[in-house]
Amino acid sequence: MLRYMLHPVTLVSAGALALTLLLASFPQASLTAAIRGISIWWEVLFPALFPFFVISELLLGFGIVHFFGTLLDPMMRPLFRIPGSGGFVMTMGFVAGYPIGARLTAQLYEQKLIGRVEGERLVALTTSSDPIFLIGAVAVGFFHNAALVPVLASAHYGGSILIGLLMRFHGRSEQAPSPASTASGQPRLTAALTAMHRARLADGRPLGQLLSDAIAAALRLMMVVGGLVVFFSVMMEGMTSAGAIPILATLVQTVFALIGLPEALSPAVINGLFEVTLGVKTAASGSALLMHQTAIAAWVLSWGGLSVHAQVVSLLSRTGMRYKPFLLARFIHGFIATLLVYALWGWMGPSM
Q1: How far apart are CA 249 and CA 26, in angstroms?
Q2: Which domain, by its residues, includes 247?
Q3: Closest listed residue to residue 120, CA positions, set 323, 331, 334, 336
Q4: 25, 28, 147, 297: which could form a disulfide with 350 (CB 3.0–4.6 Å)?
Q5: Taking the chain, what is the end-to-end CA distance rounded to the nearest angstrom?
């Protein structure tokens, strides 16, 4: 009996039923939360992500991934046990932020440029906040302190690199690595250009069709992202109205009391558990020391929020890549980023 009660289908069904009851019990609050979620999607996420989605599709069609795959293979394989094409994904992921890394990883898997385990390593490495959000929204917009950028960026992106190095040990015995890029006796740059040219010829689509396909694919993905943002916004509002969030906050406060962190920051952890923007905004508005507030903000950025997790799962759902390694990587990333803030604060933190 217990096995059936804990089955994923049973748990998801129970969660959907509970959410339906919350919607019926608090219709006005749910509507307000849905409107707020749509506003975040349209005013923040759409203009920030849509251009990168289109550009990434175009670059794939032009063979840029194959260029990077040949050029960066000697670096990416020894460090991260990922093919050189992962260097392109890592660059785009760090520049554009989540969920670009997961999107490109799924595309590389579909094109058979990486294997399943390599894809799991890559998506764990490349899921991070974009610098514009970290600098403009978090440090300047929420904290009103640009001096936080060095320590916050070092903790977040340094944690990403450490996760990549740790993930190289993931699945070592599960799957043989994909074939290494070969230069065939040519200089590395020449071989990379040749690989790009061959990939472009193999794609074969004219520029007009390539651009049209890129825009259509980006719009489909943006609709998925927007739907998930609205869903989690409504879910959080329903849980707050039902009194579930204060219960979770009490549990977090108990943990904070044990490890010596300010209990006043527990709402930031609860909000960040579900959604990044709300979590870092709550951390910035707290009443604790700036060092503690920054550490919690780094945890929220590195954890990503269940909203981002759901976006990544939706992108990887057709690839066979597993969610568990990604979940573990995000948990460890949040822990590492928090520790890095405390370790680097005396050196890189703002002077008080």
Answers
A1: 21
A2: 22-348
A3: 323
A4: 147
A5: 58
